[in-house]
Design goal:
Layout (H helix, E strand, L loop, with lengths): L1 E6 L6 H10 L3 E4 H8 L5 H10 L12 H8 L3 H26 L5 E5 L14 E6 L2 H10 L4 H10 L3 H7 L2 E4 L4 H24 L7
Parallel strand pairs: 1-3, 1-4, 2-3, 4-5
Length: 209
């Protein structure tokens, strides 16, 4: 199993890229979906969040009101840090369990993680891929997803700059074009990852010993 850490900032197209990796046969683990499962009503993490932030951040059904909580924490860095301290360890543990479950299988296991580098989860991956896009593209996509511009800007400001992530990545995908262009880049990166993994296993490193 080759583990690929896939990341990008808000609305960069990371999740769409994950779908194309899946189309190529990869198994995808979505960190956001994992976090949603862990914070459902009744879960220990849900109870911890409510205890710290209060029931004002639950909806009429008693579930976590994610948008309301997002507005709150992305306006208050200290509270964002508290939330991350609560959520990240649990998400990392669940993803690690998924890695262990699939360790003996073949192919690609893609970890779709927004804060891959910020949470140091890149250490779980054999390769890292960043999907980047211009701020205008990200804000436009966020708006189409129902995220107000003010909130989107606050979320982007809380994430590492795109260029910093790109410098740390093994592969960078530019997503300022069409869906077809994105799919072609995912296909190219998949081929390159498989080739590089094969070179590593054979002990061949171009230009090295």
């Amino acid at each position: 199993m080759i583990i690929v850490g896939l990341t990008g900032n808000l609305a960069s197209g990371k999740s769409e890229a994950a779908k194309y990796f899946k189309k190529k046969g990869a198994h995808v683990v979505d960190a956001d979906e994992t976090a949603r499962k862990l914070t459902r009503k009744g879960q220990p993490l849900f109870k911890a969040i409510v205890k710290i932030f209060g029931r004002t951040f639950t909806d009429k059904r008693g579930q976590l009101d994610r948008k309301k909580l997002a507005w709150h924490v992305f306006s208050r860095p200290k509270d964002l840090k508290k939330l991350n301290v609560l959520v990240h360890p649990s998400v990392i543990l669940e993803i690690y369990k998924e890695i262990e479950k699939r360790r003996s299988k073949k192919g690609l296991l893609v970890l779709d993680v927004p804060l891959l580098f910020e949470s140091k989860m890149e250490k779980l991956a054999d390769f890292t891929v960043v999907v980047k896009a211009s701020e205008a593209s990200m804000l436009s996509r966020a708006s189409r997803r129902g995220i107000p511009s003010d909130l989107a800007r606050r979320i982007l400001a809380a994430q590492w700059p795109m260029m910093k992530k790109a410098r740390l990545a093994d592969f960078v995908i530019d997503n300022n074009g069409t869906s077809e262009e994105l799919e072609r880049q995912v296909n190219r990166v998949t081929v390159e990852i498989l080739k590089e993994q094969k070179d590593r296993e054979s002990g061949y490193y171009p230009g090295g010993i």
